[in-house]
């Protein structure tokens, strides 16, 4: 079985990749860039993932370009529900790439984070899978949350402190300040 795995960052990939390997699933990673702001943050996350992927022999696809404007236009006036747009955009891009690449399934490391809207990710992934014609592979990777964190610290990985978009950066660092 071949699976294309959307990877948001290297630390969140550690545990899901371990589980998928144990299940003898042939995995290729996909790094989606447009939702990570600022640009320098995206570069740090991509560089960390490139190093980790090389270290473990994971084949990767790295998205080209950086459509900050497209992302912002997609969420403007919907900032409070921006995650729906962001999940949909990342998962749809992954599903379309998986279909083109003749993968059997697609999935995401977003299912690892206890901070993400898990049920929403699952529902969006399954809907996209039906519409694109490639199944969404669901697994609740949150069971390995602590294990993944410890492993990323042992590997001295760069560990970001917010989800990715400029709005989540503001929430993380500015708190209640406007």
Overview of the structural elements:
This protein has 178 residues and is α/β, with parallel strands linked by helices. It has a single domain (2-174), classed as 3-Layer(aba) Sandwich (Rossmann fold). The chain is built from 7 helices and 4 strands, in the order βαβαβααβααα. The protein has helices spanning 10-22, 39-56, 68-75, 82-100, 118-132, 145-154, 166-174; strands at residues 2-6, 26-31, 60-62, 105-108. The chain has a 4-stranded parallel sheet with strand order 3-2-1-4, with helices on both faces. α1 (10-22) links the parallel β1 and β2 (26-31). α1 crosses α6 (145-154) and α4 (82-100) packs parallel to α5.
């Amino acid at each position: 079985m071949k699976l294309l795995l959307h990877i948001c960052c290297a630390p969140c990939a550690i545990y899901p990749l371990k589980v998928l390997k144990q299940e003898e699933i042939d995995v290729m990673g996909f790094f989606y860039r447009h939702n990570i702001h600022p640009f320098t943050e995206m570069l740090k996350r991509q560089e960390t993932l490139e190093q980790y992927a090389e270290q473990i022999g994971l084949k990767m696809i790295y998205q080209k370009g950086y459509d900050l404007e497209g992302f912002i236009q997609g969420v403007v006036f919907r900032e409070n529900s921006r995650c729906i747009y962001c999940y949909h955009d990342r998962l749809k891009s992954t599903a379309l790439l998986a279909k083109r690449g003749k993968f059997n399934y697609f999935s995401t490391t977003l299912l690892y984070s206890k901070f993400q809207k898990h049920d929403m990710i699952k529902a969006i992934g399954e809907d996209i899978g039906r519409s694109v014609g490639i199944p969404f592979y669901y697994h609740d990777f949150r069971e390995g949350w602590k294990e993944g964190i410890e492993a990323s610290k042992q590997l001295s990985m760069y560990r970001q402190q917010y989800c990715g978009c400029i709005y989540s950066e503001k929430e993380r660092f500015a708190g209640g300040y406007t």
